[in-house]
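Hi R.,

Here's the chain you asked about this morning:
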Amino acid sequence: QLEPGVKLPRRSMGLTSDEKLQGDQDGHGPTDTKRSCTDCFCVLIFFAALGGLIFCIYRAATEGDIQSLVSLPDFQGNACGSNGKGQYVYFCSLSGTQIDSEHQICVESCPNSTAQTVNCFDATSQTFEATAAYPTVPLAGMLCMPTGGQLYDQVKSILGQNKYLSVALQIAEAFRNTELMYIAGALSLACSLLYLFAIEWCAKLLVYIALGFTSIIPAGFGAYFIYMSQQPDSATAISTAVVNSGTINVDSAQTDLYIGIFLLAVSFIILCVVFCKSKSIGKAAEAIEEAADCMFSMPTLLVEPFISFAFQALVLIPGLVGLVVLYTSGKGEADAFPSTNFSPDNISLVCSIYYAFILLWIMAILHNISTFVVIYTAEAWYFTHEKQSSRGCKCQFGPVLMLKGYTAAVTFHFGSIIYGAFLTATLQGLRIAFQILMSVADAEGNPVAKCINCIVQCCLGCIQKIIDFTSKVAYMDIALNSVSYCEGVKHAFGEIFSSGVQWAAVEGFSKLFVITGVGAISAGTGALIWVLATNVDRYKDTSSAEYVSDPKNAAIAAAIVAAVLSSVFMSIFDTVADTMAYCEGVQDYRESLPAEDEEDGSNKTCWSCLPSSSARGPETKKLLR
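And the predicted structure, written out as tokens:
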């Protein structure tokens, strides 16, 4: 009779060993899996969808206007930078304080002093005449921007008439200083490696420090509120605001007391969870450490983010350009500057929507391939490395493992990759479409539409996180067992992660480390770039080729670059940490399976599976009770 609480696994109840998954065998890793094609029907659907994409690309190439994306027009509608025209748009000055906003011209280079002259159009004589220039600086490689004063305000006002153009120019200018962006990128990469190194050696300590702060901080605030409730002439700002609002009929002392008791209760609950689940928390911390250990023991995993980023950039940048070109294929007669409103016909609009969805799908496929390769490599490391000496870099064939992972992803499991990517792209498309629809109502000042938009975006965002998480878990099981997407999800959640406390702890701690790392690295990088742009002559001198016209935007751009690069590393770390938790679950599941005959693999009888009393382990003793 089984001891209460001891259960046989579902797969061992009346099933033959032939029905077990490959990953149920002891010592089995992803490199040992005999693979077959999974979710093949998805491959056929994807290639059929690519046929429609080819039509969209053909329409963009034959009817789109690429020149309108890389240049601004002069007052005659000629694109600057083409047909012998200068690449910069320059607004001539009617007087020292007035811009001629109707007759902008194209110039080869932006004038930087009043001693220079430019050929401006005279509306009276209808001819071009040499006119004294005013100091300007290049903006985004397309516009000569006045250095200050009333002329600067007037040009800025002209650009402000088109918010899309204004934002595009600001973004282009922010990222235009490639030198500072290289500095930001190198700094963020170095900080990311140092951060992962610290996690490898101090993860358990950091976890318990975080838990300590999580429980101590509410208790400290609770004690403070209770103390303030006992002071007759004092009250906290929170209780004062609550009393003044009139929402509840209590005085400030009672409010402080209730808040203090609530915070102390929260602190007590956190402490109870920590003590009751200390074993799971300890295993979660070990999984976090193993994730960092795996990344440093397999240096090629640190290269994979660059490979993934390169492939995604090669697809995303031309894809976005093609989308805009496709959207302009329905544009009619050109509008006057600064208006750049496009008026696509119905065919161009439908093609643009379809093109955007396929682009999202392809980007999700590339991301899922990267995720699968990381999972494959991490699982191979876990089931083959020697844990007691893993910091000695026992895995010398990381590139081979990654190559095998890529091969398995694009040959045997490409259908499953497409399946998960389709779910992700669909949710992303719905979020973008609803955001566009609601932005129209929001622009009209409709508060109800704004509220609905926030609620729907929150719900769709939660659903998308669930889908992404489910796909990641499915790929863990696919890499080990070579099953379909749905079977992988069912097996992983039904058997491996049937007890989710440890899994939730790993997921929570890894997300905490990811958010902390990305936030600290991006903020520090942005602050450093702002200091360089405002204090180093190379970047603040208007005559310098590396002059930064807007240090604030440059700092924001640097922070974005740092956030993107560090998040790539942190997302790999998050995936590896989840994979370590999955592998621990697989190992526990294998140990729970009944012993099998070594010769033919069949289950032994109830009596033959019992070893001698001296060799009985704790699991056997439980079954005998």
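The radius of gyration is 31 Å.

Let me know if you need anything else.
M.
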